[in-house]
Specification:
The protein has helices spanning about 1-30, 90, 110-115, 115-130, 155-160, 180-185, 210-220, 245-255, 265-270, 275-280; strands at about 35-40, 60-65, 65-70, 70, 100-105, 105, 135-140, 165-170, 195-200, 225-230, 235, 240-245, 260-265. It is an alpha/beta fold and about 280 residues long. The strands form three sheets. An eight-stranded parallel β-barrel has the order 1-2-5-7-8-9-10-13. It has a three-stranded mixed β-sheet with strand order 4-3-6. The protein has a two-stranded antiparallel sheet with strand order 11-12.
């Protein structure tokens, strides 16, 4: 009996230890940032893009555009080129850029983009044909949409000639709400185009828990695989402009979006080495 009792106790202790280890593992997983990638908005200041975003789990790079305001960040497009080109061969070997969603042609000005979407569609078709050493997993059309933009419904015809998988970004500048935003998109967005939802937290448009309700509504309407979240990793700065969000600001923001693929906007400008180290702890 005593041997049986000891054996039973040992089994129970081992079982309890296993449960405890599993619980600790799950807790650790929950505390780790769920970062699938980073966004990069190329400009002359960041052509030498560097970082260790893989420490956060980032493996996919969303390049916002490869041509902006009529200048190309890649060779071979026939457009005028920026003074210093990014080293695309090096970027292709970075652990945070093992997969790349290539942004096409855009303008820095949102109003200019919206007024010239036909031009951008034609230029984007041209940019999509440029060869790079990147492992391309998708394409991104850099005209951001929200329910206040009446011409958004013209996009399906304009984007029909662009390669797939194709992504656009969406936000709710009119604050019509999660369900209304999702319903509006559903009326015109083709089934083969996915969306990056801009959470709006960085510009204080909404809190992260509210942004989560938008993502949930979009996922329910469009399907799980068609929705990713852009985490705005910046905050307004006193005197104008923006500053990197602090680790204390970012942790609850990221935690609100568990189960979604997250992309930090943007890596070179706002996700500094100090922020990476703080989030990775």
């Amino acid at each position: 009996m005593s041997r049986l009792l000891k054996t039973s106790l040992a089994v129970l202790l081992l079982g309890a230890l296993g449960v405890a280890v599993d619980a600790l593992y799950e807790l650790g997983e929950g505390l780790r940032p769920n970062i699938a990638g980073i966004v990069w908005q190329p400009d002359n200041a960041t052509v030498g893009i560097q970082g260790e975003w893989q420490k956060l789990g980032a493996h996919e790079l969303l390049v916002q555009w490869t041509a902006v305001d009529g200048q190309a960040f890649v060779p071979g497009s026939g457009l005028p080129e920026v003074p210093v080109m990014p080293d695309w061969a090096r970027i292709a070997n970075e652990p945070w850029a093992q997969d790349v969603i290539v942004g096409l042609a855009g303008f820095f000005s949102e109003n200019r983009s919206r007024d010239n979407i036909e031009e951008l569609a034609v230029l984007s078709e041209r940019m999509a044909k440029v060869k790079t050493p990147l492992n391309v997993t998708g394409w991104y059309f850099p005209a951001e949409v929200d329910p206040s933009w009446s011409r958004a419904k013209e996009l399906p015809a304009l984007l029909a000639r662009l390669p797939r998988p194709l992504w656009i970004s969406v936000y709710d500048g009119a604050n019509i709400g999660p369900q209304a935003t999702a319903a509006w998109l559903k009326t015109w967005l083709p089934d083969d185009i996915g969306v990056f939802f801009q959470d709006g937290v960085g510009v204080y448009a909404r809190t992260a828990p509210v942004a989560r309700t938008y993502a949930d509504a979009l996922r329910k309407s469009l399907g799980e695989k068609r929705v990713k979240i852009i985490v705005e990793a910046f905050r307004p700065q006193v005197g104008g402009g923006f500053r990197p969000a602090t680790v204390a600001e970012l942790k609850p923001q990221i935690a609100a979006y568990k189960s979604y693929p997250l992309y930090l906007f943007d890596g070179p400008h706002y996700v500094t080495p100090e922020v990476v180290e703080g989030l990775a702890r």
